[in-house]
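To the team - zinc ion complex, inputs and output below.
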Amino acid sequence: NVHKNCYRLICVSPCSPLPIEYLPDGITPNNISNDDSNSIMHDDRDLQWINNIDMVDIKSTSEPVFQTDKTDDSNDYDSPLHPYTDMLTNSFCFRLLKSFRYSKLSQSESHRLFDLIHSALPSPNNLPISINKLLQKLELNQNFFRKTNICLLCYKEISDENRVCLSCPTSNKNNIAAIYDSDVKSILCVLLEKIGDTIRVYKNDLILNNDTSGNLDIGFAYAYQNLLHRFSNENFITALMHLDGIGLCKSNKLKMWLLSFSIIELPAKLRYQKHNMVIVSIWVSSKEPIASVWLQKSIKKLEELKLTGVIVNDQTIKLKVLGITGDSPALKIALNFISHNGYYCCYFCYLRGIHQKQKRQYPYECLHQMRTVNSFAQDATAAEQLNRNEKGHLGVSIFSNIVDINFPYGIIVDYAHVSLLRHSKSIFIELYRRLTPYVRNIVDRALIHQPFPHFFHRQMRPFNDLSFVKATEIRNILFYGILPIFHKHVSSEILGHFAMFITALRLLHGKPIFGDRTSDIAGDLLTKYYKDFSLFYDGLENFVLHLHQHFKNQYEMFGAFSHLGSFGQEALIGYVGSNRTGTRFYGDLICKNYSIDFLLHHKMEKSNQFTKIVDGPFDQEFNFDFKNNSLFQLLHSVQCTCASLDSCLTAYRRCIINSQVYHSLQYKRRQKSVSYFVRYTSTAVPNSYLFDNCIVFDCEDYHIATPVSSYDEHD
Ligand SMILES: [Zn+2]
Ligand SMILES: [Zn+2]
Ligand SMILES: [Zn+2]
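Output:
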């Protein structure tokens, strides 16, 4: 059934509309740019900013000379900014800083704008004389990171002044790594003070195994429930470690690697918000990190947190570590394993792999021996002692000391990378390659014009440009684009085979549709898909395809894949990596800006409690014509006998359901989205809805109403 015209949003509801500022965090699309071309001239200013930030006495050069000097201890923060306003200094400063950070101004641009604002204010006023002083006053000048430079030839520390290692004659900037270890304890304290209550409430649900949403979030799956059982008399929060790398600059191949963790005891929606994830350490270098060199200090800090914990509100909260997740290159580093094209590269089983047409291939094998906790540890120790490759191990993983679910069981495959960015993408490219240029054109057009619910943030990408595609884009094409579009152009055998893969992932992605049988069904589909793979494709039986054989176990251990954080991690590292404006001193700026943002976010909301998201309609449409379609008359007459349709019904442009904003056609900025929403209140019984949260599609001769809940699975 073709939904030709989708109808307008009407909400007849007693709820009052919400102001626009009340929108949840995820609404605004994140503009992540990797552009390193701008503001080359700001280098010196950026460096100065870094040096000055903790030294209050050094004035920024942009400090205007005409400013009247204010003493630093003047306690004027709760007073108005100046005599002609009732805006408080404190709140103005917060908002100013937040705007500066939000618009990603370089430091020198911020200084310039700050000076301009300052010069236009009536005198006297309470605005601090420089941004540095402002940061100091708001107590946002805390840098959570400590920098260490390491020579990658001798692994010795080198001081910040020296640009090369003095004991290595061939040392140059390419074999130096900058490590930024965070003060995990302080970050956790700020975080727990802020979100401790949310954690307590959700943890209670986890302890009762009370999965109200039925989403099989990670905390309701076997691994975490097992932890709860083992440490039932301890007060703890649980970390899921994430390791990931990203390119910072195309010209010098500089890469940033990030070790962070998310907190399992936070509800999934909050867990992967960038401000709720804890950054443990950052590695900036053109060389790949060596975990034992990079994470030595950080792992010690984590061990300490596991032992002594942090004290928040007189309560000791210890840390547990559920496991580690990342893509194949990251897991190779974290687990001290050989790379994904070597023999025995699977961390879960002893699959050897074969050499075929200059490629390492891993064809389906019916029986393969699984690695166990004992064999994993033994092989790793042997590799370490004998300094050789032992069944894929190159040594003992630095994480093996801190994980509470022993390897290999504490390893979580990054599904966004393995299934979406690697396997699905290569199948897309292969299927596309088999089409004629004429059909490729048709397919690309169909993909671009496919409408989506607006919360997908982006439309589908044509296949002629998949180079910088995001995991979420691949997911959208996989779940919503491939089958409806390709069935006209590809043989049913090939598409039917691929459909097994899509169906299996669809099952593993979300809530267990078939209950306890969900993982079995998905597992069977994936096994069949893998088994028959060589009938349809040549030379694509790589390690990522093999990993799908372990997905059934992964789902049973860690729950629905959409809650495993790969998408959140993608956003976090993108945000952290883009958190710089100059072309040098990447790491320093990244850490500085992260610290400011983190504190700004958690302190800002502490002072302004307007972040609560209330379900209901908002953004009223006053000029809506209810007589333009007989549908409204019809629906109104079911409920009400009055004659004045326009005064009886109220139209809204947007509505929040389950913290998700839905748009109507009346909402002009919705672009091509299709998330329309209609609901009708009963006049007899207040607060009860006649058509409970329905989406109405107005087709040519009829209407289709579908419940909003069927649009609920998008994250
Ligand atoms: Zn050296
Ligand atoms: Zn395996
Ligand atoms: Zn009426």
